[in-house]
Amino acid sequence: MIISPAWARLDNNVAERAVRPLAIGRKNWLFVGNKKGGEAAGVVLSLVQTCRAMGINPREYIEDVMRRLMSHNAQKLQELLPDFWLKAKECPAA
């Protein structure tokens, strides 16, 4: 007899759906150029998947961050991560 909490899922569909875009695009990414290009692509894909998991429109997030990036304080880049970005958007400073 297996006892598990009611909230525990018996499948990993959420994880499988999260990595599906990576599996689909695998052949496309053979041509990212070099190791640094692959690392950059990985960072962008990670941000996009994080946005999706948090219910953020990835395009809106990336466009906003790109506009603000050059003028943003380098010591406070953490504020541009999806979780901080969402909090700031939901509760703008008065």
From TrEMBL:
Protein name in the entry: Transposase remnant
Domain of life, source organism: Bacteria
Start and end residues of each Transposase IS66 central domain: 9-39
PANTHER family per record: BLL1576 PROTEIN
Organism from which the protein derives: Waddlia chondrophila 2032/99
InterPro entries: IS66_C, Transposase-related, Transposase_IS66_central
Residue stretches making up the Transposase IS66 C-terminal domain: 46-82
Classification lineage: Bacteria, Pseudomonadati, Chlamydiota, Chlamydiia, Parachlamydiales
